[in-house]
Amino acid sequence: MPKIGDVQLGGLPRVVLSVNGESPAVAQAAGEGVDVLEVRVDHFDDPLTVERVVNEVKVLKRHELPLIGTIRGQSEGGKAKLADGQRAELYKKISPLVDAIDVDLSASILKDVVAVARRNKNTIILSHHDFQGTPSEATLDEIVRKAIGLGSDLVKVAVKAKSESDVVRLLQFTVQHRQENVVTISMGNIGSISRLVFPLAGSLMTYTSVSPTDGQIPAKQLIEDFRFYYP
Q1: SS3 string of the chain?
Q2: For a Cys staple, 134 with which of 125, 159, 203, 223, CB 3.0–4.6 Å?
Q3: What tens-digit pLDDT sequence spans the chain (231 residues)?
Q4: Any catalytic annotation for residue 156?
Q5: Is 79 known to be catalytic?
């Protein structure tokens, strides 16, 4: 089973808090029981210099929680306008400081980033996001096969739910692929239940953020729910 830092993935669901830098809300969530911090470098305010990003990551390490370093491209939900070369350089600099690296499955820099992550013994998360809808089962299967073939330790699939049937289809997909280290999320208000239920089907982690969006459940509520439903 892959690890992120000292968190053994499996058993109780792991709550990942996406952050765009240090803040009192991050400290509060860490105290409430968040398991992992995802450093969304692509959500940092300008200027996104290497020195500034490295310093921000070092500050977040003080919470003594495993860190995932993520620098999304704009097509996958990233906010910063970063050229591929800039993203690759930032990944290279933060890789020694974090426990895991999350890179878009569609990224042209994927192979280079995976090589860097391997050298630094990072857990490798390869991600696919679809903000328009939920793909067919065949397409979802292909996403997992591709990610595993490219060296993933975990495969993250986050797709938009337009109906309850979309949520059910992704739930069934999660059950079928639970032995392949998947993280699955149905985004949007209809998909909020996935944040709580999909870990039961085999999703290794669930995500929230300091400012919840896309159907995310606030960290405190999510942790309380997990403690109740997953004793």
Answers
A1: CCEECCEECCCCCEEEEEECCCCHHHHHHHHHCCCEEEEEHHHCCCCCCHHHHHHHHHHHHHHCCCEEEECCCHHHCCCCCCCHHHHHHHHHHHHHHCCEEEEECCCCCHHHHHHHHHHCCCEEEEEEEECCCCCCHHHHHHHHHHHHHCCCCEEEEEEECCCHHHHHHHHHHHHHCHHHCEEEEEECHHHHHHHHHHHHHCCCEEEEECCCCCCCCCHHHHHHHHHHHCC
A2: 159
A3: 678 877 777 767 899 999 998 988 899 988 889 999 999 999 998 878 999 999 999 999 999 999 999 999 887 787 878 889 999 999 999 999 999 999 999 999 999 999 999 999 999 999 999 999 999 999 999 999 999 999 999 999 999 999 999 999 999 999 999 999 999 999 999 999 999 999 999 999 999 998 898 999 999 999 999 989 987
A4: yes
A5: no
